[in-house]
């Protein structure tokens, strides 16, 4: 039932490269105590793996649980069920000292360039923090911070400045520098370029690609924009209401989506070519996907059933398992 | 490669200097208060060296006397010099108030930081502080006095504990919002523990409030000490203290009323000083120095614009109803920098114009100027906004009020801002309809329902009864559109209406706008930075850069056949322009960033970032016909580039590719 079955088709690669990250049957509910037990799951039985050097894109609408998965991996959100393992060791409930060891290898870049750096600390102090926590001497931390700033295209003197003296794009590069300063293996990027203008977005995407190629990094690249994801990711996981709808190679998922939701998502992403966009619009309208606004929370069955144009009685009663269709895994009774 | 960019501003002073010193020095009251407190403490600590009398020296000739040459402030019932006693005891009295401050603010802050760090702790602490706040403070203090006598330090400490519950309330919200910042998440990922986060990331953000609250609690502490003394619970008699002095003065209110004056005045001054310091520090930095231009400058601007409009030739042909023609529009900060210069475009009824460009290019300023909604301190400095032949740039506020909402409506990027959280959707919508359509209650109610259905809301009845926070972002944007449509506008100005929405919802909103344009003949000015949105809905497009239109014309011709280097660059940087198969290794970028208005060069404003810039670009560049359809372009090399078929170059791919090494390992 997990996507591991799908990955078996890639058996050779899977065997020779042990997973960098493995997420198994992950369930997350918000709240605590009895409230959590009865709350609907924000993440509901999610499985995926990221291999060394691989970028996996996580897409879905807002509220679909993308950020929650990122937080669960980073230990920022309590996990209600399932497991997360990093380089073969289980970190699902790792305590803070274990997290501190991990912190160097498992890093994050967050969305909002305005709030991801402490406005009251110099850039140098923010960059040095992860090193200082690990006992690196102040002078060395500072020189590493300067090197890293240079690597992301900022002047070394930036160490003594404050975040407010930089533009959004520059701040996002500083966040990337902060994530990469302790030579990580896996970086979780949560909407890392969503708040940026086109040209700045391109700069940060290129920077992420350069650093990945230089250092063999793995990324979990979370974004609501499937085109941005397909620039960076080799594989894509499509999420709807906390469940995986479709997963597979980026080209397959974005160019011949199998799941009705993925089809709707791809068709809704506008392209800057007027004639082609008119075609896409017609295609989107012909799909007949119902608006999210009309829908109340679904009980059992397929989470997409109330919006899906193909839904049948079976769809409202039985949750479809993720099964392999072509190169992809698809959770739909009729894919 | 990534271009290197030098940040502009100069480094600032330390955070500490930022939050306190400056504000204190710029507020006369705060400064005076600080000087008084400092003088008091200094005088008190150095008292043994300069005071005319020892505190216990008795001059029986001066018992209960008023001011005299020998005793400047008079003497008390034992003939002791008041001046000496007041100053000698100042430090002690201030010190006991400080106990309340340290205990109250310290405990309150620690509780707030603890609660902010953990939901469970918050539950417990909030319950405990609620109980504390419901306890009768006076009764507890009197009970303590009954049990242990007038031990002032202990009483002040207990007072601090009682006050801490209130401080906790004040700080909790702020601590929680600091705790939820992404940089706190980033620090957690670094492995910084809970305590480290509170001390390093939350406390510095709370410092301002801590300082302000301390000053205010300090004043409260002084007053309570005095009040206790007045009702007879002052400190033990022999040591001098303000409370003690007030206490003994209170016993001579009838026979020697003067006795109350010196200690009372000093106390009052001290309390006022502490309050003044608190107010000075609490003031937001902007509140003091207003950036608003003087009314005179604004009036002159308006008069100039009106004169310019009057001098301009009248519009040639009588315009069609619902025709918008913007001619040479300039917008600027009053008495200073221009923000938008010489913008010209037309919007015919039933068409959609896109204004595109990066943030900071003047799109929003242009858009809101169409409704006369420029922020204060910014105004139209030239050109005309012709709506049905009437120049809105020189229209009075009253004229604009008649047009806003009825003829021209606005929807903004954040739909929630258009909605008042205090009222239901139904109330706001019917109120708008009644005002704009002069409709009756029942009629407005029916119209509200049909508007919501028109914008694609299925369960309109339920939404009408909902408050804004109870609906999703996409739903709120639909409601905002319904609100904008309530006056049956002929022109809709939409500022990034879909930027904050999911693509699936964006597609629905765009479809909705398209059908409204088709069915009602309404026209739309759509501000966006998304070229896909332009391709989807706009008939015409104006590409803006640094306050100018750099390229304009029919959407199809501009997106398929761009002429201006900036348009070329935007398209090359857009990952949506490619599919997974033709996705380039690296996207094209534009080095540097959009210049600030004050830094605009005299020549082509894009020159510093342009791959094709040359010496010919150093002179001002006019907007000229581009030769393709009715397009216009502002670039001296546009023809040359078109002839040679040059495009914006993508960045180089780095040579050393670690990925290849990884692949080798895997083979
Ligand atoms: N702190 C929180 N408390 C309660 N519910 C939350 C919290 N954060 C997110 N959620 C809910 O969890 C679900 C998934 O949210 P999230 O992971 O943020 O989605 P995404 O990142 O895909 O937008 C949503 O229903 C959201 O409302
Ligand atoms: S399982 Fe049914 S409802 Fe769900 S996506 Fe497939 S067809 Fe649609
Ligand atoms: S005028 Fe010169 S600098 Fe400006 S866009 Fe054209 S080529 Fe580039
Ligand atoms: Mg998110």
Automatic annotation (TrEMBL), chain A:
* Keyword NAD in annotation: no
Single biological process term from Gene Ontology? peptide transport
Q: Where is the signal peptide?
A: none
What InterPro entries does this protein's entry cite?
Answer: AAA+_ATPase, ABC_transp_ATP-bind, ABC_transporter-like_ATP-bd, ABC_transporter-like_CS, Oligopep_ABC_C, P-loop_NTPase
Q: Which PROSITE patterns match?
A: ABC_TRANSPORTER_1 (PS00211), ABC_TRANSPORTER_2 (PS50893)
Q: Where is the ABC transporter domain?
A: 21-266
Output the superkingdom of the source species. Bacteria
Keyword set, alphabetical order: ATP-binding, Nucleotide-binding, Transport
Keyword Magnesium in record: no
What SMART domains does the database record attribute to this sequence?
Answer: AAA
Q: Which GO terms describe its molecular function?
A: ATP binding; ATP hydrolysis activity
Q: Which family does it belong to?
A: Belongs to the ABC transporter superfamily.
Q: What is this protein called?
A: Putative ABC transporter ATP-binding protein
Recorded source organism is Arthrobacter globiformis (strain ATCC 8010 / DSM 20124 / JCM 1332 / NBRC 12137 / NCIMB 8907 / NRRL B-2979 / 168)
TrEMBL record, chain B:
Membrane topology note: Multi-pass membrane protein; Peripheral membrane protein
Q: Which residues form the ABC transporter domain?
A: 324-571
Q: Name one GO biological process term.
A: peptide transport
The cross-references to SUPFAM superfamilies, in alphabetical order and at most eight, read: MetI-like, P-loop containing nucleoside triphosphate hydrolases
What name does UniProt use for this protein?
Putative ABC transporter permease/ATP-binding protein
Q: Which InterPro entries match?
A: AAA+_ATPase, ABC_Ni/Peptide_Import, ABC_transporter-like_ATP-bd, ABC_transporter-like_CS, MetI-like, MetI-like_sf, Oligopep_ABC_C, P-loop_NTPase
Q: What SMART domains has UniProt attached to this entry?
A: AAA
């Amino acid at each position: 039932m997990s996507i591991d079955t799908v990955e078996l088709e890639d058996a050779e690669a899977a065997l020779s490269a042990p997973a960098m990250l493995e997420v198994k049957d992950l369930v997350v509910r918000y709240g605590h105590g009895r409230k959590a037990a009865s709350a609907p799951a924000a993440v509901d039985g999610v499985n995926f793996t990221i291999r060394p050097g691989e970028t996996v894109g996580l897409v879905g609408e807002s509220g679909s649980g993308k950020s929650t998965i990122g937080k669960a991996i980073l230990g920022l959100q309590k996990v209600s069920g399932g497991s997360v393992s990093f380089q073969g060791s289980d970190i699902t409930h790792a305590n803070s000292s274990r997290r501190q060891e991990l912190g160097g290898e498992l890093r994050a870049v967050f969305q909002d360039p305005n709030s991801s750096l402490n406005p009251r600390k110099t850039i140098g102090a923010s960059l040095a923090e992860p090193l200082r926590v690990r006992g690196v001497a102040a002078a060395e931390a500072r020189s590493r911070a300067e090197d890293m700033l240079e690597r992301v295209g900022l002047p070394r003197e930036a160490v003594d400045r404050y975040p407010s003296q930089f533009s959004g794009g520059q701040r996002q590069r500083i966040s990337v520098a902060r994530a990469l300063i302790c030579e990580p293996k896996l970086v979780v990027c949560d909407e890392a370029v969503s708040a940026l203008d086109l040209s700045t977005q391109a700069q940060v995407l290129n920077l992420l690609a350069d650093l990945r190629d230089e250092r063999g990094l793995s990324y979990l690249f979370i974004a609501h924009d499937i085109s941005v994801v397909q620039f960076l990711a080799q594989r894509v996981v499509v999420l709807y209401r906390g469940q995986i709808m479709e997963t597979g190679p980026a080209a397959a998922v974005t160019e011949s989506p199998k799941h009705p939701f993925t089809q709707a998502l791809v068709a809704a992403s506008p392209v800057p070519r007027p004639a082609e966009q008119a075609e896409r619009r017609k295609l989107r309208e012909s799909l007949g996907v119902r608006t999210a606004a009309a829908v109340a929370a679904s009980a059992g069955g397929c989470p997409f059933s109330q919006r899906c144009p193909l839904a049948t009685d079976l769809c409202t009663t039985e949750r479809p398992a993720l099964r392999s269709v072509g190169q992809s895994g698809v959770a739909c009774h009729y894919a | 490669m990534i271009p290197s960019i030098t940040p502009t501003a100069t480094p600032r002073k330390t955070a500490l200097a930022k939050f306190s010193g400056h504000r204190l020095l710029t507020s006369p009251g705060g400064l005076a208060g600080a000087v008084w407190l400092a003088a008091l403490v200094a005088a008190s600590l150095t008292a043994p060296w300069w005071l005319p009398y020892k505190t216990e020296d008795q001059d029986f000739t001066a018992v209960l006397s008023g001011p005299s040459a020998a005793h400047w402030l008079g003497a008390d019932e034992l003939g002791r010099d008041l001046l000496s006693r007041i100053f000698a005891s100042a430090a002690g009295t201030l010190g006991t108030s400080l106990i309340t401050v340290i205990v109250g603010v310290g405990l309150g802050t620690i509780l707030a930081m603890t609660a902010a760090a953990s939901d469970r702790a918050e539950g417990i602490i909030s319950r405990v502080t609620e109980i504390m706040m419901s306890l009768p403070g006076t009764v507890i203090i009197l009970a303590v006095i009954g049990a242990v006598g007038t031990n002032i330090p202990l009483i002040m400490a207990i007072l601090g504990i009682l006050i801490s519950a209130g401080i906790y309330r004040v700080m909790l919200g702020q601590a929680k919002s600091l705790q939820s910042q992404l940089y706190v998440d980033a620090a957690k990922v670094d492995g910084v523990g809970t305590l480290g986060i509170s001390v390093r990331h939350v406390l510095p953000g709370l410092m301002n409030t801590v300082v302000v609250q301390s000053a205010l609690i300090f004043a409260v502490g002084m007053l309570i000490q005095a009040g206790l003394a007045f009702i007879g619970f002052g400190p033990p008699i022999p040591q001098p203290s303000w409370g003690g002095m007030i206490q003994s003065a209170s016993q001579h209110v009838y026979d020697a009323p003067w006795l109350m004056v010196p200690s009372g005045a000093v106390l009052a001054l001290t309390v006022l000083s502490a309050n003044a310091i608190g107010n000075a520090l609490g003031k937001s930095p902007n509140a003091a120095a207003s950036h608003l231009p003087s009314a005179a400058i604004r009036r002159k601007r308006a008069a100039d614009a009106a004169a310019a409009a009057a001098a301009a030739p009248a519009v040639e042909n009588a315009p069609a109803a619902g025709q918008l023609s913007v001619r040479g529009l300039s917008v600027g900060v009053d008495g200073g920098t221009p923000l938008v210069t010489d913008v010209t475009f037309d919007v015919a009824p039933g068409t959609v114009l896109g204004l595109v460009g990066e943030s900071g290019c003047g799109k929003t300023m242009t858009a809101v100027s169409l409704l006369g909604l420029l922020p204060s301190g910014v105004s139209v400095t030239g050109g005309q906004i012709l709506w049905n032949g009437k120049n809105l740039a020189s229209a009075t506020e009253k004229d604009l009020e008649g047009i806003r909402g009825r003829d021209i409506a606005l929807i903004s990027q954040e739909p929630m801002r258009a909605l008042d959280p205090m009222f239901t959707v139904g109330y706001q919508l019917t109120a708008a309809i009644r005002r704009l359509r002069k409709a009756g209650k029942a009629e407005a109610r029916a119209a509200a329902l049909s508007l919501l259905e028109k914008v694609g809301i299925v369960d309109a009845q339920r939404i009408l009864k909902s408050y804004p926070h109870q609906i999703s972002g996409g739903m709120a944007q639909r409601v905002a559109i319904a609100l904008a449509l309530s006056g049956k506008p002929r022109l809709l100005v939409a500022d990034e209406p879909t930027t904050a929405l999911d693509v699936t919802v964006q597609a629905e909103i765009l479809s909705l706008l398209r059908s409204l344009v088709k069915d009602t003949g309404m026209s739309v000015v759509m501000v966006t930075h998304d070229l896909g949105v332009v391709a989807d809905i706009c008939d015409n497009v104006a590409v803006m850069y640094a306050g100018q239109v750099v390229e304009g014309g029919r959407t199809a011709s501009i997106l398929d056949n761009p002429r201006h280097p900036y348009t070329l660059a935007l398209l090359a940087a857009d990952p949506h322009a490619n599919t997974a198969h033709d996705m380039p290794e690296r996207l094209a970028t534009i080095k540097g960033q959009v210049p600030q208005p004050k830094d605009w060069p005299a020549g082509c404003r894009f020159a510093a970032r342009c791959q094709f810039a040359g010496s010919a670009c150093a002179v001002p560049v006019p907007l000229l016909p581009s030769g393709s359809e009715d397009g216009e372009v502002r670039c001296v090399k546009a023809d040359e580039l078109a002839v040679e078929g040059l495009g914006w170059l993508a960045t180089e791919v780095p040579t050393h590719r670690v990925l290849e090494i990884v692949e080798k390992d895997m083979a």
